[in-house]
């Protein structure tokens, strides 16, 4: 039986041969700690969302909670379905072929990475779009945005992400083992698989488009919030409650947006660069291999950065629930207290300035009256 029959291609074998030098500095404790942190954080987020969902009667709040819970569920399954594979490879001395001699596990891992990656990005965009509609056009939102529509949107996102990830299974695109041999993802180098470049570019473009939608919608939300705050200056309890809830929502979405940009933009941009230059992490050499050509050095640099980029993308699944829990429960409260204090100080300053101005005007008017009386 040849290497091709067993699913271990020459590139995969080369990765397996270079495993010791590539990953010797990272122990199995690294993926285990990431998995435990991700599972605990997302589980806590799901519990918190479930409790809040049962208490809320407002459709608007329930829709947003459904989006948050779905994102936490997506991140949780992404950790549970991929981390055990990575841990197994580490325990096998970074030899992927030792646990996958048919190549099916590599395809499974690639499907999981693509599905949960795209779904996380799409869900973040859907949340940003939902908040933008709720704040910029509240009447239309109240009449048309129902919980059933939110559920249909979530189902559509999951189905589209999963169906897209199945394209390499049907022969369009390819999932290959990536350096240092601990994971599988979309092939970016030269491949005999039809539509491989199309599949890789489409994934990167969809991801970048999702990030841009999230950014644009959050900017619209902030703009709409500022405009509404200027036109609605009442001191009623409902007005204050609306202001507090919208402020918390905007800050929370901004936190999610920052996490997404930091975690995903390096991978998506580098993916496009590697596709354009036809560089694949399969071509990476070990540190002991002598390489004098500029192209080989650039290839090794891309591979090192590509590994860091994919770890940042995986870190997104861990950071998301902590953004929801810590930022909303702790940082948001402190921010609101600080914002209220600044607002109160500004109001008091304006009142003091107005009082001083009124006193000065009265004094001037009194002086004018005395001058008139003297002249008379």
Description:
One of its GO terms (molecular function) is thromboxane receptor activity. One of its GO terms (biological process) is positive regulation of cytosolic calcium ion concentration. There is one protein chain. The relative contact order is 0.11. The protein has helices at about 10-15, 20-25, 30-55, 60-90, 95-100, 105-135, 140-145, 145-165, 165-170, 195-230, 235-275, 295-375; strands at about 175-180, 185. By secondary structure, it is mostly helical. The protein has a single domain, classed as Rhodopsin 7-helix transmembrane proteins (Rhopdopsin 7-helix transmembrane proteins, Up-down Bundle), CATH 1.20.1070. It is elongated, with a radius of gyration of 28 Å.
Q: Work out the helicity level.
A: over 70%
| Shape field | elongated
Secondary-structure class? mainly alpha
Strands side by side in the biggest sheet: 1-2
Task: Tell me the number of strands.
Answer: 2
What is the averaged pLDDT score?
75
What is the correct CATH architecture?
Answer: Up-down Bundle
* Quaternary structure classification: single chain
Count the domains: 1
Give the end-to-end Cα distance, rounded to a whole number of Å.
121 Å
**CATH topology tier name:** Rhopdopsin 7-helix transmembrane proteins
Radius of gyration: 28 Å
CATH superfamily: Rhodopsin 7-helix transmembrane proteins
Please give the largest β-sheet.
2 strands, antiparallel
Number of helices: 12
Sequence stretches where pLDDT stays below 50 over 5 or more residues: 1-7, 10-15, 17-24, 285-294, 341-353
Strand content: under 5%
* Topology as a string of helices (H) and strands (E): HHHHHHHHHEEHHH
Please report the first level of CATH classification, the CATH class. Mainly Alpha
InterPro entries: GPCR_Rhodpsn (IPR000276), GPCR_Rhodpsn_7TM (IPR017452), Prostanoid_rcpt (IPR008365), Prostglndn_DP_rcpt (IPR001244), Prostglndn_EP3_rcpt (IPR000265)
GO molecular function: prostaglandin E receptor activity; thromboxane receptor activity
Subunit structure: Interacts (via C-terminus) with MKLN1.
Transmembrane segments: 28-52, 64-88, 108-129, 150-173, 197-222, 250-276
């Amino acid at each position: 039986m040849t290497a091709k029959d067993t699913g271990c291609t020459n590139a995969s074998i080369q990765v397996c041969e270079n495993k010791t030098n590539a990953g010797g500095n990272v122990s199995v404790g690294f993926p285990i700690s990431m998995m435990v942190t991700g599972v605990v954080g997302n589980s806590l987020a799901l519990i918190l969302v479930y409790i809040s969902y049962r208490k809320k009667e407002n459709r608007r709040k329930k829709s947003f909670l459904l989006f948050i819970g779905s994102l936490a569920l997506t991140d949780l399954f992404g950790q549970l379905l991929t981390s055990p594979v990575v841990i197994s490879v580490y325990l096998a001395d970074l030899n992927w072929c030792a646990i996958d001699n048919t190549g099916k596990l590599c395809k499974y891992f690639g499907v999981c990475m693509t599905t949960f990656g795209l779904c996380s990005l799409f869900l973040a965009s859907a949340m940003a779009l939902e908040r933008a509609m709720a704040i910029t056009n509240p009447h239309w939102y109240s009449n048309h945005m129902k919980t059933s529509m939110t559920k249909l949107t979530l189902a559509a996102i999951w189905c589209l992400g999963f169906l897209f990830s199945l394209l390499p299974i049907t022969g369009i695109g390819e999932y290959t083992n990536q350096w240092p041999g601990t994971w599988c993802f979309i092939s970016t180098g030269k491949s005999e698989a039809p539509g491989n470049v199309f599949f890789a570019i489409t994934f990167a473009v969809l991801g970048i488009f999702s990030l841009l939608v999230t950014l644009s919608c959050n900017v619209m939300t902030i703009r709409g919030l500022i405009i509404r705050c200027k036109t609605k200056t009442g001191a009623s309890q409902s007005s204050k409650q609306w202001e507090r809830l919208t402020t918390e929502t905007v800050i929370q979405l901004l936190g999610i947006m920052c996490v997404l940009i930091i975690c995903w933009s390096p991978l998506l941009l580098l993916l496009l660069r590697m596709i354009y230059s036809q560089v694949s992490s399969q071509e990476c050499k070990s540190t002991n291999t002598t390489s004098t050509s500029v192209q080989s050095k650039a290839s090794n640099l891309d591979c090192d950065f590509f590994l860091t980029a994919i770890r940042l993308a995986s870190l997104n699944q861990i950071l998301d629930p902590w953004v929801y829990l810590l930022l909303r429960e702790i940082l948001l409260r402190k921010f609101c207290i600080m914002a209220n204090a600044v607002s109160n100080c500004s109001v008091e300053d304006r009142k003091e300035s107005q009082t001083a101005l009124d006193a000065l005007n009265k004094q001037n008017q009194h002086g004018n009256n005395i001058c008139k009386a003297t002249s008379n």
